[in-house]
Amino acid sequence: MDIDIDKARADTPGCARVAHFNNAGAALPPRPVIDAVNGHLELEALTGGYEAYEQASAAVERFYDAVAGLLGADRDEIAYVENATRAWDMVFYAIPFRRGDRILTTTSEYASNGIAYQQVARARGARVEVVPDDADGQISLKALETELAKGDVRLVSLNHVPTHNGLVNPAAEVGRLTRAAGALYLLDACQSVGQLTVDVREIGCDMLSATGRKFLRGPRGTGLLYVRRDVLRTLEPPFLDLHSAAWTAPDEYVVRDDARRFETWERYVAGQIGLGVAADYAVALGVAAIEERVTALAAGLRDELAARPGVSVLDRGARRSGIVTFTVDGHEAADVKLALREQGVNVSVTSGEQRFDPSGAVSAVRASVHYYNTEEEVERLLRALPRPA
């Protein structure tokens, strides 16, 4: 199924104002998402927050079915969380690590996750170990299999798509190895949900976190969490409230038995509704078609950049995503970003916070495409680049 690009752009008000290549930061939302969020905020303003929630209960509940359908999960395995970092934290800190447990991760790990590993290692005596890359720069499956065979691995945790170098880690292959070894598998899908097909059954992950604001085109301040049914009942969240648990006696409580044990009662209701609409929007377009379009646009941009003297493309991986990173000789990445913005082209800058891989600590321009971008916008980006010094 091909995407009607003209309709997708007509659905996206921002396309009339800017060539937006910062989708790995925050994508432009489509009109149905905007209307859903604004509509609920207006309802709250006119009727009251609690009353609006009661009137919109079907739309709130739709979030669980929409996200479950997007990910190939069941609705009781889905939680709404205020952002991807908090979703990841809630499930990571629920794992009962013991002294000597091993946490295996990748060289391209995101800074927030890396800090959490270190905190747990200090507090509980777990060990954080980095699995080396293969020749293409993604996690080495051979090295991972070797490490799993050594035993004591409580968790394998990796990003599906790193924030800074374009690659796609072999998530399903990792899932087959973790299942065989009996290790938990946590997938940070912050940069993959919405641009790639992400099926939790096919991947075999036990837990997955993602955001609303990036490729899924949902509202900022929204996130989602998937926890496999057989696993979630073994994990008690680090924080509980009257939504995630029931206070059954003065000295007793019972944690609820679905993924909503990782939620809190108070939440951004308009955002939850909008995120459900964004998930439905992506499914209606066809996630496979989205992936095909994004991958092709990114490949074309990489080829054009690589052919330019003085421009270095930094992306790695046997399989690559819609994230394209590069440098321009003689120009700081931040200066390139500002020069492009003056021409109505949005990009971002990678921060160089990958402490497990010193070679990844390079400031670079990050141009992340989405299906509503056009080949003409790619040309616009290329024309606006400063000349190498």
From TrEMBL:
Superkingdom, natural source: Bacteria
Domain Aminotransferase class V: 21-381
Entry keyword set: Aminotransferase, Pyridoxal phosphate, Transferase
One family name in Pfam for this protein: Aminotran_5
Gene3D superfamilies: Aspartate Aminotransferase, domain 1, Type I PLP-dependent aspartate aminotransferase-like (Major domain)
Molecular function GO terms recorded: transaminase activity
Cofactor needs: pyridoxal 5'-phosphate
InterPro entries assigned to the protein according to its UniProt record, in alphabetical order: Aminotrans_V_dom, Aminotrans_V_PyrdxlP_BS, PyrdxlP-dep_Trfase, PyrdxlP-dep_Trfase_major, PyrdxlP-dep_Trfase_small
Matching PROSITE patterns: AA_TRANSFER_CLASS_5 (PS00595)
Protein name: Aminotransferase class V-fold PLP-dependent enzyme
Organism: Actinomadura miaoliensis
Species classification: Bacteria, Bacillati, Actinomycetota, Actinomycetes, Streptosporangiales
